[in-house]
Input
Amino acid sequence: MKILVLNSGSSTQKTALFDIESAASSEPVAPLWEGKLEWDGEKENLTVRNGRGKQVREEKVCKLKDRASSSVEKMVQMVWSGPAAVLSGANEVDMVGHRIVHGGAKLEEPVVIDGQVKQDIAEVAEIAPLHNKAGLEGIETAGKLFPGKKQIAVFDTGFHRTMADYAFTYPGRYEWLERGIRRYGFHGINHQYCGHRAAHMLQREVDSVKVVSCHLGNGCSLAAIDGGKSVNTTMGFTPLDGVMMGTRGGEIDPGILVHLMRKDGCGANELDDLLNRHSGLLGISGVSSDMRDVVEASSKGNKRAKLAFEIFVHRLRTAIAAMAASMGGIDALVFTAGIGENSVEVRRAACEKLSFLGVQIDSAKNGAAKPDADIATPESRVRVLVIRAQEDWSIARECVRLKLNQNVQNSRD
Output
């Protein structure tokens, strides 16, 4: 069964094609084809590669309004056209799976997309503005390119539905909870995968392991995973909460926003733009939202870049300890996603002051680590794992599982 996955992020659009027959496998399979669009302002970078090693790279200027209507559509068409094509036509795709960041209170489990599902996704788009809008655009693009094919939505918020009410309820007015204003958490697709993958690497049963999963990319969040279930996470009602990120500041005193409204006359749109696009690593460093650029600038003596790195690490360490505390212990610390998998500096600095938790990393292993790897010393009470993010494969597997379950149900009917 050929599944095309569209993974819409805050600054990227990833696409991957998988050929999966069984949803039971715990080992990820390599995609037949994958593409990635990255945007930095109006600069657009496209990378496409297939399983045979053929690769295409393009760089151009692209305005925001053209990203979904033109760029994403063109990238998807390269599955069956161009030098890296692996299919003869769009009709060979059996299903399309989508990563949808915010499912709100209504959408938790993977679901076949229809008009009502699209409406429910749109209703919570204003609280995940960088993500749900892109997800809906991806659904429309896929509907145009694959008419009649089933599309499946898999929700980042779904994994965190197991949190207790005291973990997801904000201490404001109780009426907030009744209105759906609560902690939802995000990056759940990859956090769930990392929890299971960590147990597999430790050769233990999932329900016996306490994992702190650090998903560190342009967006960053941590999850406390106890027995395979999410019990706490750093992101909240929106993806703005928690640790420092590329262009988002994470947790800040809400009184600052009230102050800016009163003193500077800032409106909702201005604050939204400030918090989502001009804070975090970019806002502090003034250099970039990319950790690689921040580390390089810091090494050359840029004080603002150095401060940005130190804030990032300080808040990451604090959050790791908090996640461990919420479970009453920790067996494995996982680093995943772009920064987590690739930044030797972040992993080293984050673990330096965590010896009180039993964390000790091997400098040589850390420096040479390629996912999936254990970089802890033999004496470390906590295993420190670098795990490759597998959101796309996880989404494809959910599509197959949903299809097989529907086939079983239809046979019973």
